[in-house]
Amino acid sequence: MEAITFEGTAKTPTVKFDASNGVFEIKGRSIPENSIEFYKPLVDWLDEYAKGPLDLTQVNVQLEYFNTSSSKCILDVFKKLENIHKGKSEVIINWYYEEDDEDMLEAGEDYESIIRVPFKMIEIVE
Amino acid sequence: MSFDINDYYSKLNSGDVLLAYKGSITSDLISNVLEVVEAKLDDLSEQAKIRKKVYNVLVESLQNLFHHNDELPDKLHDSFDPKFGVLVVTRVENNVYRISTGNFINSNKIKFLKDKIDKINSLSEEELKDMYKFILNHQKLSAKGGGGLGLVDIARKTGNKLEYSFDNYNNEYYFFNLEVIVS
């Protein structure tokens, strides 16, 4: 299965979901006016991946900013991962936040309380 | 006396203004505003925490303007650009900012919006968090991409009450003004 990759822009994150090593990355800013357009291909890709996932999938989320429109789409992505985790495969979500960015930490904790996948909160210290 | 937009704008546009804009709220405009304000905030060497909060609130405020402003009927339209909105970012003092936005709204939406803001303003920090999570998990995104979370997110991130007014422009249309303090 081919990896899905997007180059980051001022309003959308860099994405690389690689089915060959099970490492998925979302990094940068996610503040588009209409986030569905951006996230739909990722959600569709995850549906395909879910048919034959690796034993371990590691998801690295390192967002500097995301808007509320994206927050729902990110939840959709996490719900797909939750389904994979419910099966025989393991999923871990690494949620990165910058030092002192309590809002971003809290956002990660919000997801952690909704989604039944292990989260690891990782502070980026400069 | 009916609402005078120029009067309103010149009152807002005073003090230590980082950016003031009135006109069409488009996707490109949002990008430009964010870029300009981000650069200015960097220059002002405010705390990173405040910079991020201002940026976040600005994103949500602009996108609320983008998704929710009502067009005036043609006969009143001459003096206003399509998707007309107002945005003013003011530095009140060190690490305190005011973000003001304004847009036209049809009178039939006022009650819904007023109830929503009053509800948000009545909630504690913990209750706001629960409301945010509930909407996040239970409401679908609209076709336009709005999620009904913008105002809740703004209130949560700033920890301050949302101040607002509705000024009558003509029978059917009001001007909705929202002020948020980031501190």
Description:
Chain A has 126 residues and is α/β, with parallel strands linked by helices. Chain A has a single domain (4-124), classed as 2-Layer Sandwich (Transcription Regulator spoIIAA). Chain A is 37% helix and 33% strand. Chain A has helices at residues 35-49, 68-86, 102-114; strands spanning 4-6, 14-18, 23-30, 56-66, 90-98, 119-124. Chain A has a six-stranded mixed sheet, covered by helices on one side. In chain A, helix 1 (35-49) runs parallel beside helix 2. Chain A is globular, with a radius of gyration of 14 Å. Chain A starts with a strand and ends with a strand. With 183 residues, chain B is α+β, with helices and mostly antiparallel strands. Chain B has a domain at 5-108 and 159-182: Histidine kinase-like ATPase, C-terminal domain (Heat Shock Protein 90). Chain B is 47% helix and 25% strand. Chain B contains seven helices and five strands. Chain B has helices at 5-12, 27-43, 48-68, 74-77, 110-122, 125-138, 150-158, and strands at 17-24, 84-93, 96-106, 163-168, 173-182. Chain B has a five-stranded antiparallel sheet with strand order 1-2-3-5-4, with helices on one face. In chain B, helix 3 (48-68) packs antiparallel against helix 7 and helix 6 (125-138) packs antiparallel against helix 7 (150-158). Chain B is globular, with a radius of gyration of 16 Å. The model of chain B has no long low-confidence stretch (mean pLDDT 91). Chain A binds chain B through residues 10-11, 31-37, 65, 67-69, 71-73, 75, 98, 100-103, 106, 110, 113-114, and chain B through 27, 30-31, 34-35, 48-49, 52-53, 55-56, 59-60, 63, 66-67, 129, 132-133, 136-137, 139-141, 144-147, 149-150, 152-153, 157.
Notable traits:
heterodimer; A: about 130 residues; alpha/beta; Transcription Regulator spoIIAA; 6-stranded mixed β-sheet; 3 helices; 6 strands; B: about 180 residues; alpha+beta; Heat Shock Protein 90; 5-stranded antiparallel β-sheet; 7 helices
